[in-house]
Amino acid sequence: xxxxxxxxxxxxxxxxxxxxxxxxxxxxxxxxxxxxxxxxxxxxxxxxxxxxxxxxxxxxxxxxxxxxxxxxxxxxxxxxxxxxxxxxxxxxxxxxxxxxxxxxxxxxxxxxxxxxxxxxxxxxxxxxxxxxxxxxxxxxxxxxxxxxxxxxxxxxxxxxxxxxxxxxxxxxxxxxxxxxxxxxxxxxxxxxxxxxxxxxxxxxxxxxxxxxxxxxxxxxxxxxxxxxxxxxxxxxxxxxxxxxxxxxxxxxxxxxxxxxxxxxxxxxxxxxxxxxxxxxxxxxxxxxxxxxxxxxxxxxxxxxxxxxxxxxxxxxxxxxxxxxxxxxxxxxxxxxxxxxxxxxxxxxxxxxxxxxxxxxxxxxxxxxxxxxxxxxxxxxxxxxxxxxxxxxxxxxxxxxxxxxxxxxxxxxxxxxxxxxxxxxxxxxxxxxxxxxxxxxxxxxxxxxxxxxxxxxxxxxxxxxxxxxxxxxxxxxxxxxxxxxxxxxxxxxxxxxxxxxxxxxxxxxxxxxxxxxxxxxxxxxxxxxxxxxxxxxxxxxxxxxxxxxxxxxxxxxxxxxxxxxxxxxxxxxxxxxxxxxxxxxxxxxx
Length: 589
Known about the structure:
By secondary structure, the protein is of the alpha+beta class. 17% of the residues lie in helices and 27% in strands. The protein has helices at residues 36-56, 106-109, 162-166, 390-397, 402-420, 426-456, 492-501; strands at 110-115, 130-131, 137-141, 144-148, 154-159, 176-178, 181-185, 191-195, 201-205, 220-222, 225-230, 242-247, 253-257, 275-279, 285-289, 295-299, 313-314, 319-325, 338-344, 350-357, 366-369, 376-382, 461-469, 475-484, 519-520, 526-529, 534-538, 552-556, 567-569, 572-576, 580-585. The strands form eight sheets. It has a four-stranded antiparallel sheet. It has a four-stranded antiparallel sheet with strand order 2-3-4-5, with no helix packed on it. Strands 6-7-8-9 form a four-stranded antiparallel sheet, with no helix packed on it. Helix 4 (390-397) packs across helix 6 and helix 5 packs across helix 6 (426-456). The model is unreliable at 1-77 (pLDDT under 50).
């Protein structure tokens, strides 16, 4: 049983962080300008509101109906700016806030950055940053969960204890924050909640007796429920997983749903009609009841062998956009095609699709207006995943070549016997043979394997960003990013040996999506991280309907990004890579 109660507070850090102006406030006129009746009405409304909030804080949840109310966890007066890996459920992938004026200012706007105190590659950052109403940030990694102030102070740290680490257990998913709690999970199958204020454990539950997959999906907390995928899964063996909803007050299971095909980097959306909609790893679409988990309708997978670690997007036009790759998981580094598919949320009907891509889609689209008068646009990246670091590829190929190595050694031995006409006892000949099989096979195999990986491996990754009319699928523009020339994603080669030395042999490489999901701010600027280690921003700055060289800006972080793209709050943009956290300010704080 995981021991989740360990907490390492910093005695020199005051929990809470600096105050930040509330987003919403009740404006009351001075008493001299308000009549007695008006004052009574205001007081009555405030008392009723407090009573309602108190009633809602009791944390009730009916298992039969699935209806929940939030627990009492000192819920803030203002909603959180970025409560889930994809943002707020109302905007998922978009932000109602703009970061600065949209100019290419990320380098100048960098406020602070963080990586593990024991070294940049001593751990791995798996969750993108969540942002609360005070601009505090929350991230998780192989070694635990951390809360930062907006100025970069570590306010608390919940560590993965040594027992969990030795059992290769870690929190794989993007976090979620709701009602004063941080929600996360462990690869052992455990789901837990921490206090946002102190980092102390509020509850833990074990809905996943078969573990939780080690991809970087999304824990979603909404309407008193915590929704995530559980169970280990394997696309190559068609081992699928489940989607569950838990009571956010105590972790009790409310319902579960098992799709026909598995989910990867699971990300559900909420159309606003009491339902949940998501895609599986082959772009099959599932719409279920949010309260009960009952299946309403499904769209079958696009093909039986295709797999993607990318995911969907929900547009404000009632259209659900899914992505595919025609290649299986084993060939995701050299994919041969993919598609973008638009389905009507009401009944799943296919409205349009774009399938003429030369490579697969291993990211998430974003839907929104890129200009004040622009029509709805859906934007997605197209390009394959990066492979493992070169030494790791050689290591993986060796076991498959053991029979060939033995055969090569036998041939060398037979040749030596014939050429040297060796004499001696049968035992001596057998010992010589064993030596030749081992040494001869190894000497011949090592350069052969290295050459094989070098010739047939891939070390060149082109990537393109496409924009389409969200209603019709008509192409708008395309821009090609600089081709990434490397065996693995940025940072994976450098961090591979360090992470092994720190005890993370089972997760020594990042293997991120081809790009993080894009985030669209209120100025129509698209931000995303790419496997080349850069954070990109794209905007049609001259309004000519095309993307030129001057419309693309980038900031080199030195490490690739996971599924989670940049998070945006008033005056703040935060982005995590596989090894670091970067926080940018527009100068307003």
